[in-house]
Amino acid sequence: MLAIFEPTAPTSQQPSTEASPSDSAPALPSRKVVLYPVHSLVLAAHCACLPIAPASPFHSETGPRGQKISPDTPVDLPVWRIVLPAPELFPILSVYLYNKNLPNLYKAMLPAEVPENFYSKPGTTACPTPLEIQACGEDLGQKFGQQDLLRCLGRVTGIHRNAYALGVCDEGLWMALGIAYESLLIAFHAACSRTTSTA
Predict the structure, then answer these.
(1) What are phi and psi of 60, to 5 degrees?
(2) Cα–Cα distance between 170 and 114 in angstroms, integer?
(3) How many CB atoms lie within 10 A of CB 190?
(4) Residue 136 has pLDDT above 60, yes or no
(5) How many CB atoms lie within 10 A of CB 92?
(6) Structure pTM?
(7) For the chain, domain boundaries
(8) pLDDT by residue (tens digit) across 5-23?
(9) DSSP state of 82
(10) Is the dihedral of CA 7, 9, 14, 15 positive or negative?
(11) For residue 7, what is the DSSP state?
(12) How far is 162 from 36, CA to CA, in rounded Å?
């Protein structure tokens, strides 16, 4: 079980060195934690900056002490604690690492489907040309407003920050992130120009 933590901001209050041992400890700020069922092998195969995964409590059909596991046997799952800059966007990255589906990744990052030449066929990493990216961005800028495009930009940068923090090694992912980001910047510029011209 993977526990994704939000990073905490440093607090301005420092613990006092003059407090007596009987004084209660200062309360720690609450943190949002989300649990995701993941396979450690999938993350370990793609991520270079992971903390060491906790050991599995059991193997195959036996428990940690070798006892037979029945459907009624309680099992303590190990929790793998990771802090990510954009924890709410981890599911998008996780799903991609499992299935390597570039069309679905683009759908999660952009407000509309991209042309088929934007994603590679299985086993290839063919990139669209700069003119194709420009055309896609301008098309998005004509169809969507600034707020929609800003939300998508935030999503792309959040996925990028998570992938960087985990040290993800996947050429298709980094290609898609770069293309999506560039397309959205072009789209945002087009949307701003459209708003200015109609004002």
Answers:
(1) 50, -120
(2) 20
(3) 20
(4) yes
(5) 20
(6) 0.78
(7) 2-7+31-198
(8) 777 765 544 433 343 334 4
(9) E
(10) negative
(11) P
(12) 15
